[in-house]
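Q: Start with the shorter request: fold the first protein.
A: Done. Sequence, then structure:
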Amino acid sequence: MFLALKELRHEKLRYLMLMIITGLIAWMVFLLAGLANGLNTGMRQVVDQWQLSNIVLNASANKNLNASSLSLSDLKQVKQTSNKTAVVQYAGAIKLKQQKVDVSFFWNSPKSIYFATAN
């Protein structure tokens, strides 16, 4: 113990740099966790604004809207059992005035398309 304290007193700069690097790594992890939580909340908010009572997803989609795709027979079965409509969702990126823009399309019939962008 005495040798460790003597080492700390003798090599102050080395241990100060070690503490600064550890603090910066902890701050970066905290920042990335907050960013991930914010992005998750933003995507969740879109689905919550629909005020839906039920959402039908593919069984292999792992509760992920982007990974879910229903076949035509599945859609017919859902429509027969209840008063539901299909919503098609597509996410991608387009180039607009030399800038890439993330876009999402939501539609349930050829006459109604909801278009959302995120920069």
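Q: Next, the second protein, separately.
A: Sequence, then structure:
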Amino acid sequence: MKIKRLTSILAACLVVGQIQFNVAQAAVSLAKTKPAVEQTQVLDNSIKNSEISNIRYSKSDGKVRLVFDLNETTQYEVKSMDNGYVMIDFSEPIAKNYASGINVNDASVPFVEIYSDGKTSCAVIQVVDGSAFSSGELQNPRRLYVDISKDYEYSITKNLEPGLTQISYYSRKNGEKQMAQLVEVDPKYFKLVPVLGGGDKMAKNTVKAMSNYVDAAVAENASYFGDGRELYGVTKIAGDLVSSMYLTRTAFGILADGSPYIGPVSYHGVVHSDNGDLYVSGLNGTRGLNSVMLYNHYYGTSTGTDNSGTEYVVKNDKIVSINRGNSPLRKDEMVVSVTGDGKQVLNGLKVGDTLQIEQSLNEPWNAATDILGVGPLLVKDGQVDITSAEEQIGVDVTGAKAPRTAVGILRNGNVMFAVLDGRQSHSRGMMLDDFARFLIGMDVVDAVNFDGGGSSEMVIGGKIVNSPSDGRERPVATALTAVRR
């Protein structure tokens, strides 16, 4: 123990003058005649000659209890320290056999430090993870007990800047720990912006890299994704559709009036030609053996397809070129890539012919500026409402306690980014229903689940603030970011 540290702790612990003054004052107040001086002197001598002679502890599943045997005249004060430890000031010394401290050897309370100057003393109970404590007295004989609960739940709130508040959450219940990072974002100060892994192209990248693309104040992972560039879910960025989904799933987005919204989104696409109409299989996905796939510049520099189909490059509803595969992708053009039946329907069309592409979403999403379709829904109108069955979300998402990512809308209209660690000793992770209840406890009224597991990550000011379960950042398809206005 360094002398400097010991001196500082003793200075905090030892309150000799104040305690002795209080004791003497109390003794004098009891006296009614002249022998009061002698009575005070005797009481003062008894304090000097007595000590805290016995300290013991017990451990159970729910708590650690420390018991200090007191004398009739012992005064004490129990208080919490800034680091979460518990300090007890005593008006008497603690027996010398405890001078080296008490090794409790518990995960919640590993050790008790003892400090004494021979007249007064203090005990510092090392408390891990900020566990709650309570204290009280037992009688016959007189004893002080301090109970350290092994279960705890608390949050640390930090105002990062106007419109941005970080909440660090910690809990341990029935031996199971959880840790989450949340950020409340005020849309008056920040734009909510989806970002692709490749910036303006579909690719995989880390959340930190995507945050850096747009100089985000905060970012978290968002969409589900496949092995290649493929992105699962309806995605819209700055008014442009980037990807589609054949299922209706829950999305987070920004409506035309700038307000955040969470609700089901579905995609519908049709290609109109003089030869007939074709329903679109998807946008910027993998082309199958019998499909009608649309591509735009967000997919990359080219479609990357083989020569088994036919591709029509369309600009302003007119065919400008026809290729067998791997067509280049330009900002003002779209490619209709067809195989199987679709290839037969469009056969015979030539450059200059009309080919109209119609894409639409259900309301109110058509006019929305930005959309991230992921799912399932977790919270609706302040109630748990998990739609994993309706959205055909697999057991890889629903079947076990895992790291989680979500975005929610609060009662005050602000947006809550949320990332829960999991599959680690400091945080187990949650099932979806537990995660939904957790978000409701944070005042969320609507929430949608984002990709979780090893993908779950939050970045604040360019720094990773959670602990990804892979032990490193996982490259993902998209991120939701908050960018200063």
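Q: Describe the second briefly.
A: The first helix runs from residue 3 to 13. Residues 206 and 291 are 32 Å apart (CA to CA).
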